[in-house]
Write a structure and sequence with these properties.
The structure is a single chain. It is globular, with a radius of gyration of 21 Å. By secondary structure, the chain is of the alpha+beta class. It is built from 8 helices and 14 strands. The two termini are 33 Å apart.
């Protein structure tokens, strides 16, 4: 662990590993929420007496969630943390601490002494996002692995009994999304196209003209401030982050709330270069999907980010599709085709 500095075994700490651990520890900032951070067997966290702890975990694996040859190391670290921060945002929680465990092949850490290694750049991206959202790195683990993987644990805090849940939607609620959808899927498609023309190269080179289009995929923005305001002002009745795709994540709300939904295809805000299919099923936008009870005013922008009404919650009907997509050609079932492991 980065707390107890255990990697494979506490009694076997080789030079490269110790140097890497020193580098990581030297880059971590102190935080009032961390009573004891990296350097002992456990971290000690401080939260307020009237708060509940929110904990989320996310696993990122080379070949599944990212590709070492496609994604800049900074993006891999950034995205690994963004996934967990987005989960906290969906509950209206504030981040308290992050724990990062890495499994790495030797070649990704062998230049750690000189700096500029893959793992060093991984932490560049992760710590930049952590600093932006005041999320201290409080510990983790290191181990040699045949492929790169990052396991993130995020600890957050939310006022007692006030967390946003997936189970609060009621028939008649309006359905909203923050930001735009499909940009991450469109960016991934562009990146895959680049990879096809970069055969034999160790790392895909991203042309400057494509950086804006790839930004939603490589560096998504977790909506922590927006989630906090939705919770604080009791705007949202139910909420979830859009990690697996609108069709799948809205289905999660419907299942947990025992309701159905209608979505207006024409109302969905599309990201740059995105198609409707990418917005519906692409995933990894890390925007917030939420419902609001009738009569609840939802501002058009929340902390500077657009909030767009895209549909409504309906009664669940036995034998009928849970979600209906309203299109110019008429209504059709919206089948969940977002990301699902083992699907």
């Amino acid at each position: 662990m980065l707390n107890g500095m255990t990697a494979t075994r506490k009694t076997e700490k080789h030079g490269a590993e110790l140097e890497l651990l020193r580098q990581i520890r030297g880059r971590v900032r102190r935080s009032a929420g961390i009573a004891l951070g990296i350097g002992d067997d456990c971290a000690l966290l401080r939260v307020r007496p009237d708060e509940e702890i929110a904990v989320t975990t996310d696993l990122s694996i080379d070949g599944r969630h990212f590709r070492v040859g496609w994604h800049p190391p900074e993006s891999v670290g950034y995205r690994a943390l963004a996934r967990g921060l987005s989960d906290l945002a969906a509950m209206g929680a504030r981040p308290v601490a992050a724990f990062v465990s890495l499994g790495l092949p030797k070649e990704l850490v062998k230049t750690a002494r000189a700096g500029g290694s893959w793992v060093s750049r991984f932490y560049d991206g992760l710590l930049a996002l952590a600093d932006a959202h005041k999320t201290p790195l409080a510990g983790g683990d290191l181990a040699e692995s045949p492929l790169a993987l990052a396991d993130i644990v995020l600890v957050g805090a939310v006022p007692r009994g006030r967390a946003l849940l997936r189970s609060g939607a009621k028939p008649g609620d309006a359905v909203y999304v923050t930001g735009v959808l499909g940009g991450a899927a469109a960016g991934l498609a562009k990146l895959a196209g680049l990879a096809e023309t970069s055969t034999g190269k160790k790392q895909v080179r991203i042309p400057d003209r494509w950086r804006v289009l790839l930004e939603p995929h490589l560096y998504p923005q977790p909506r922590l401030k927006q989630g906090e305001l939705l919770r604080r002002y009791k705007i949202a009745a139910a909420a979830i982050d859009l990690s697996d795709g609108l069709s799948t994540d809205l289905a999660h709300i419907c299942e947990q709330s025992g309701v159905g939904a209608e979505v207006d295809a024409a109302a969905i805000p599309l990201g740059a270069g995105a198609t409707l299919e990418q917005a519906l099923h692409g995933g990894e936008d890390y925007e917030l999907l939420f419902t609001a009870h009738p009569g609840r005013r939802v501002p058009p922008r929340i902390a500077g980010v657009a909030a767009t009404r895209i549909g409504r919650i309906t009664k669940a009907r036995r034998g009928k599709p849970a979600i209906t997509l309203l299109t110019a050609e008429g209504p059709r079932p919206l089948v969940r085709r977002g990301w699902e492991h083992f699907g």
